[in-house]
Design a protein that fits this description.
InterPro entries: EXS_C
Shape: globular
Distance between the termini: 51 Å
Low-confidence stretches: 1-51
Number of helices: 17
Keywords: Membrane, Transmembrane, Transmembrane helix
Structural class: mainly alpha
Strand content: under 5%
Strand order of the largest sheet: 1-2
Subcellular location: Membrane
Membrane topology: Multi-pass membrane protein
GO cellular component, one term: membrane
Number of strands: 2
Order of helices and strands: EEHHHHHHHHHHHHHHHHH
């Protein structure tokens, strides 16, 4: 799939986004229309007294891109400088606690921005590799392209660290009330943008995203590929930190350190944390049961069993804060380790054999146009060794994030969460391509069946005519 240029006549209406077309179908038509358009532009330029060269008045795209990168780097240096100076103003005993609190507010949004950047890369590779992702996810013609995805990610990358810098600066300078307003305003602005009911800010894409979330929480209808695909991604996101952030905002504990006590309402020992951690797995479990009800496929039950293995990991880990140390060491800790091994092994097996189906050679990196990545990635054995090996390792390390009693080091947790998003980024390539191959095989089978039926009808008609 290729996007029609902005000056193409194949547009829905003035001021709207270009409609995506298949290049093979419209190549001749586009060529004729483009020549006609150039002719009209030539006539317009000759109609004036002195022809104007638009390319000479506008800066080149490369120059414009370099200027944007320069501004981005300057902005990043300013944020780092202000943040570092502000942190150094704090006393040493308070500095670590405050950074941990700031991390909890902004960590989920930073990881979400990383996920959006990587999703844009996924879409770009799909477009280059000839994978019709719009058909797979049942997207309309106004779906976001990889360029628009990157634009959203860029704004997220700018806004979230800016708000974090303002939070640190205001708190270090004694403006606690203003500092406390920063994460609250940021989260409120994100919610408002998502639910804004007017046709701006990519309304159709926002509606599709919210509708899919609704179908995940309440699987009252047949499960589509987009439903369980997004639900799988949610299992890789950091909902426990999001829950604690929202809890502090609701209880007006932002920009304080009182909540750090274990028995506080939003503390790390809260029973709400494992409940929030397990929610994405329960959603996916219910989807599998719904899929089994609709299709009768036993593999759906086996998939549901895979998601259920995450439940013991989460709750056995949380028990450390609610049982005696001897009970934890002698009984619950071995059970937790066993459940972690079972969950990681089962999930890894399912990724490779079911979600990816690497029994045949994948062609995800065989781009429709010659490209450097084609040479580096397509058909290379090291690519699949790396993907399978890293998936196994990162499946095991994700258990660290699921375990409530191992979240004492926020930098380690952030690194592991970022690595899990990278693992999911790799997983998306092969999961989507596997679905694309299934759709193609199904279409070929239906086409062959239709041709066979037509041949039988023609033969029967001929026999009747001869008789």
């Amino acid at each position: 799939m290729f996007a029609v240029p902005a000056n193409s006549p194949h547009l829905r209406k003035s001021g709207s986004r270009p409609v995506v077309y298949d290049l093979d179908e419209f190549e001749e038509e586009n060529g004729a229309d483009e020549s006609l358009l150039h002719s009209v532009e030539g006539n317009d330029s000759r109609g004036g007294a002195t022809p104007m060269n638009g390319s000479g008045m506008m800066p080149s795209p490369v120059l414009l891109w370099r200027f944007k990168v320069l501004l981005f780097l300057i902005w990043g240096c300013i944020c780092c400088k202000i943040g570092w100076d502000s942190v150094m103003r704090m006393s040493a005993d308070k500095r670590e606690l405050f950074l941990y609190e700031a991390f909890l507010y902004f960590n989920p949004l930073l990881l979400a921005a990383l996920m959006v950047w990587l999703w844009g890369i996924n879409l770009w590779v799909f477009a280059q590799g000839g994978v019709n992702y719009a058909k797979i996810f049942d997207l309309d013609q106004n779906h976001l392209t990889h360029g628009e995805i990157w634009k959203c990610a860029m704004w997220m990358t700018i806004i979230v660290p800016t708000s974090m810098t303002a939070y640190i600066y205001l708190y270090s300078h004694g403006e606690v009330a203003y500092a406390a307003s920063q994460p609250v305003l940021l989260y409120a602005a994100i919610v408002m943008v998502l639910i804004f009911p007017f046709d701006i800010f990519y309304f159709s894409s926002r509606y599709f995203f919210l509708r899919t979330l609704w179908r995940i929480v309440f699987p009252l209808q047949a499960i589509s590929f987009a439903d369980f695909f997004l639900a799988d991604i949610l299992t890789s996101m950091v909902f426990s930190d999001l829950e604690r952030s929202v809890c502090r905002m609701v209880h007006q504990q932002v920009a304080t350190i009182a909540w750090l006590e274990a028995d506080s309402v939003c503390g790390s020992h809260s029973v709400v944390i494992p409940l929030v951690l397990v929610l994405p797995y329960l959603f996916r479990f219910n989807q599998c049961l719904r899929q089994y009800k609709d299709t009768g496929e036993k593999t759906s039950l086996l998939n549901a069993l895979k998601y259920s293995t995450a439940v013991p990991v989460i709750f056995l880990s949380a028990l450390k804060y609610h049982v005696f140390p001897e009970q934890w060491t002698n009984f619950y800790r071995p059970l937790w380790l066993l459940s972690s091994v079972v969950n990681s092994s089962y999930s890894f097996y399912w990724d490779v054999t079911r979600d990816w189906d690497l029994s045949g050679f994948t062609r995800i990196f065989k781009f429709s146009k010659p490209h450097l990545f084609s040479y580096l990635l397509y058909g290379r054995r090291w690519v699949y060794v790396w993907v399978i090996g890293s998936n196994l390792v990162l499946r095991c390390t994700w258990t660290y994030k699921l375990s409530a009693h191992l979240r004492h080091n926020y930098l380690t947790v952030f690194t592991i969460a970022a690595l899990e998003i990278f693992r999911r980024f790799q997983w998306i390539f092969f999961r989507v391509e596997n679905e694309w191959n299934k759709m193609n095989n199904k279409s070929h089978m239906q086409l062959s069946t239709s041709e066979k039926s037509n041949e039988e009808e023609n033969l029967l008609h001929s026999m009747n005519y001869n008789v």
